Amino acid sequence: MAEESLLSGQISFTGLGSGTDFNTIVEKLIQIEGNHKTQLENWKLTWENKIEAIQQLNTAMLSLKTSLDGMDTMNEFMTKSVSSSDSTTLIASADAEAAEGSHTVEIYQLAQTMIMANNTGVSDTSTSINNTGSSQTFVYSYAGGSDVSLSVADGTTLEGLKNLINSDPDNPGVRAAIITDGSQHYLQLRGLDMGSDASISISASTTLSGYAASDFDTTQNNQDSWIKIDGWPTGSNAWIKTASNTVSNAIEDVTLTLKTGPSTPGTSTTVTLSINTDQEGIKESVRTFVDKVNEVRQIFIDMTEFNENEEQGSVMTGNYAVQLVDSGLRFAAANLAKGFAYYDATDGTGDYYSSLSQLGITTDAQKGSATEGLLILDEEVLDAALDNNVNAVAELFAADHVGAQKVTSSSGNFSYYSHIDGITEAGSYDVRYQIDGSGDIVNAYINGNAASIDNTNNLITGTADSAEQGIVIQVNDLTPSTTVTGEVRLKQGKAGELSDLLADYTDSDQGPLNILEDNYDDIVDNIDKKIDAEEIRLEKRSRELRLKFARLEALLGTYDQQSTSLSNQIDKLE
Fold first, then answer.
1. Burial class of 446 by CB neighbour count within 10 A (0 to 12, 13 to 18, 19+)
2. Would you state the pLDDT for residue 19?
């Protein structure tokens, strides 16, 4: 057999000529030589398992962040419940800062929109309302605004006029509709805004017959809502007047929703509201915090644990990046909250609660415990803390850059004034400034960095490109020739602190887990290239072996033929 024919196409033989199964021999030889490829595939699977573990952890951390984002402000965490003595008449909601207590709300009238109806009816909405042979005008105004003029073409129907009003880009806030008494159809105009200023008027310049001002009846007057809070304002004709039935400025940090007014005009109805802190709601938020943090902690434990009996680690045991993220989250949960200070009973400064352990939240360190390494909650400790100072509990979880200060020098006085959202970082900052002989602020420093001074408003502002940038303190004492020291604090609760940390750890560009996953992806890609190269080598080796044994098969066939020929010749000689 020529070599060219052996190399063309797929070489296949069964060894029937010589009685030897060369196919099986080749397959076994390739299987032995393929051990390195098998090792590469197993190695690739190891890295793919690591990638899968990182993705699982990253997903769990993002889920935890979402949960924390739902409780990282006082309004989200510290819920206040408001009960109404008549919820069909009045309901209310309260922000976290709302004071507990009860209020009476006297309702005289609800805010209303203005409604007008045309008294010239037509038997069918497709009936023409302009039969003059030329265009006419319909002109109206709303809420004291400019006139809106519509050109009503000859042959326009009632339906057409309604559509002209509603589709007009200059419509200032009036909704047209068609109403019927069962036999006749009429145009209705309704203002979309409530309040005494939101009135509709038909202009005298209207030329469309049957649609002048005198052809409309006012079926509902626009008006403000009128209420009193706890008997204020005093006087029979004095009321809090609002162009809405949602009133948010009558009781501080409370939003009222007026639902129905007095059944008899000219009279009033009184509803009692009770505002209380929803402690059970706060406890449920704490439980959610603990449970969600533990979900992530359990993943860290599972992927990094070492089985001493089997002397074998888990998929990410000993991984530095994973350990770094784990320890960072644990430290943040256990450490003093950002900008918080231990309470000093001697001068009443600091925070009642500044770490989670004070609320009964600790890490189980008992070896072999079912919850080893996880957060555990002592609800009796939490209940006592809530009873003692519920606001301090809420701040530890949900303070959103709340300012505080402490003067440490023997003289002087200053207070936190403001900060820049998204720029100023939560934390504690040393403050030092002087008041010169003329009473001006000089030589002001925040955290050792020179700060800007505004002697017109007595303000000091952090300007350095550092954590305190944008924080502003108010100087309240300008006693000449004094040096004042102290600290200003910007407090952030644990929910916000952990959320920010998770945002860094899961960042798609700079997050350590995503960087680690990218590195592992590169490793897998390189292994794939090695596997591809090995497959090419094995295929080439298989062809070489098949060619070799094909030649052997051919040679054995030749020898077999020669043996047969010699045997025949010998037989003839006999």
1. buried
2. 58
Q: Is 402 helix (H, G, I), strand (E, B) or coil?
A: strand
What percent of the residues of the chain are helix, what percent strand, and what percent coil, each to the nearest 5?
Answer: 35, 25, 35
Report whether pLDDT(6) > 60: no
pLDDT of residue 152 exceeding 60, the answer is yes
- In 3D space, the residue among 485, 449, 453 whose CA is nearest the CA of residue 466 turns out to be 449
- 3-class DSSP state of 203: coil
Strand 414-418 relative to strand 441-446, pairing: unpaired
529, 522 contact by CB (below 8 A): no
Query: How many CB atoms neighbour CB 428 within 10 A?
Result: 18
| Degrees, nearest 5: CA angle 456-401-274 | 105
Inform me whether the pLDDT recorded for 468 exceeds 70: yes
Chain-centre distance for alpha carbon 498: 14
Q: What is the pLDDT of residue 552?
A: 73
Rounded Cα distance between 352 and 344, Å, is 9
CA angle 27, 32, 35 (to 5 degrees): 125
150, 139 contact by CB (below 8 A): yes
Interval 205-217 mean pLDDT: 97
Cβ-contact 13, 23 below 8 angstroms: yes
> Which contiguous run of DSSP H or E holds residue 445?
strand 441-446
Task: State the Cα torsion 53-56-60-65 to the nearest 10°.
Answer: 90
Query: Cα 409 to the chain's mean position, in Å?
Result: 42
Q: Is the per-residue pLDDT at 337 higher than 50?
A: yes
336 has a pLDDT exceeding 90: yes
Residue 145 has pLDDT above 60, yes or no: yes
- Positive or negative torsion for Cα 308, 311, 315, 319: positive
Tens of pLDDT, residue by residue over 285-295, are 999 999 999 99
Cα-based torsion angle of the residue sequence 233, 238, 242, 243 in order, rounded to the nearest 10 degrees: 180
Note the maximum CA span of the chain: 150
Predicted confidence (pLDDT) per residue in 341-372, tens digit: 999 888 888 999 999 999 999 999 998 899 99
Distance of alpha carbon 454 from alpha carbon 54, whole angstroms: 51
Judge contact between 32 and 456, C-beta under 8 A: no
HSE toward the beta carbon, residue 402, CA cutoff 13 A: 23
> Which is nearest to 60 in space by CA: 294, 331, 337, 390?
294
pLDDT above 80: residue 279: yes
Number of C-beta neighbours around residue 444 at 10 A: 22
Q: What is the pLDDT of residues 480-489, one digit of tens each?
A: 999 999 999 9
Q: Rounded mean pLDDT of 258-281?
A: 95
- Cβ contact 34:255 at 8 Å: no
* pTM of model > 0.90: no
The total of other beta-carbon atoms located within 10 Å of residue 342's CB is 13
Sheet containing 225-229, strands listed edge to edge, beginning at the edge strand earlier in sequence: 240-242, 225-229, 101-109, 269-277, 80-84, 90-94, 254-258, 246-251
